[in-house]
Amino acid sequence: MSSKEWPNWLPLRQDLRELSPYGAPQVPAAATLNTNENPYAPSAELAKAIADRTYQVALNLNRYPDRDAQTLRKGLANFINGLSNTSFGADQIWAANGSNEIIQSLFMAFGDRPALGFTPSYSMHPLIAKVIGVNWQDGGRRADFSLDLVKALNEIATVKPALTFITTPNNPTGTTVTLDEISLLAQAAAQINGLLIVDEAYAEFSDLPSAVTLINEYPNLVVIRTMSKAFAFAGARLGYLIANQELVSAMFLVRLPYHLSSLTQAAAEVALEFQGELLGNVSTLIDSRKSVISELEKLGIQAVPSQSNFILFTGFSHDPAQLWRQLLDRGVLIRDVGLLGHLRMTIGNEAENQKFIAALQEILNGESQ
Ligand SMILES: Cc1ncc(COP(=O)(O)O)c(C=O)c1O
């Protein structure tokens, strides 16, 4: 969506007037492969368990929820401890309505110095920064989208950001940053009293260990996770961070009272009980990623190496916006992320992936005739 002309009578902040709202198209399509969701819906058993639990909660909806979401935060700590062999308590977890709200809270709490990120990366980091009024600085990446570590360390020393963002696996590229690199970035951030924010929205799809394993060593390291991707729970809106307990205490200053509804807390608690089912399709999605990449290669298309549930691809002669449209005309909705010569597709179920490849093949063959 392009930015609009605002009427003069509306006292909208000057710095918001030039912004465009987040707007990944929500249009009906046979294959919806544009927002990095998990294509596998909850089972009827899980849906019923959520309905039963939220029914119980609904009987008390005249009361405010647990402001501190203690049970949920304890459950999230146990979940992370099980995955990464750590021993976090609820006091090292903060939960909110999606990781976007987590990101917003971090800017609100720590944004009186600039924030630094390395684009192309998750487009909402700079957008949320701007909305909160935080000065966003872009460090950039190499042409192959990898992180130039030496340059990044220099930028931290020069810009002196309160918050440095690393997304790994990165969206929209799918590329990763190693734990050794994260350690060096956390050290550089500590030198200037800054935080290193590692956005691990897609961590479960990667074979690299999580940065949560470094939190005890680096108190300025914050890891953001979400239930929206591997956990297949995007509609419920639940994101969280894992960090030093002093940082979590600071989150209480900026959260709105009762920000996480009783219904959300209850649904997320049930989801944690069904984690085996919800995460059960991660390996299927990783296998599908590999087969979609080899299908793309057969069509002469190059995929950026991905450790995530999406693929950024290039090597087509069309304008990306035109190819995006032609795919949509064939019922396949993917994402034009605004990168020259590239488009991004989310791994879907088997039928959706085949539909994507078939539509792409048809368009590319049509072109070469
Ligand atoms: C890197 C990254 N972080 C955070 C989010 C936000 O996720 P949510 O607010 O659904 O938790 C996304 C969503 O696409 C993402 O790609």
Bound small molecules, by name, code or SMILES, are: pyridoxal-5'-phosphate
CATH class annotation of the largest domain: Alpha Beta
How would you characterize the largest beta sheet?
7 strands, mixed
Span of the ends, CA to CA: 34 Å
CATH-derived architecture of the largest domain = 3-Layer(aba) Sandwich
The fourth-level CATH homologous superfamily of the largest domain is: Type I PLP-dependent aspartate aminotransferase-like (Major domain)
- Low-confidence stretches are none
Q: Helix coverage percent of residues?
A: 40-55%
Strands ordered across the widest β-sheet: 2-8-7-6-5-3-4
Radius of gyration: 21 Å
Task: Please describe what this structure looks like.
This protein has 369 residues and is an alpha/beta fold. The chain is 41% helix and 12% strand. The protein has helices at 14-17, 44-58, 70-84, 99-110, 124-132, 149-159, 179-191, 245-254, 262-273, 275-278, 282-298, 320-329, 350-368; strands at residues 31-32, 93-96, 115-117, 136-138, 163-167, 195-199, 221-226, 239-242, 302-303, 310-314, 332-333, 343-346. Helix 3 packs parallel to helix 9 (262-273), helix 4 (99-110) crosses helix 5 and helix 6 (149-159) runs parallel beside helix 7. The site of pyridoxal-5'-phosphate has 13 residues, from helix 4.
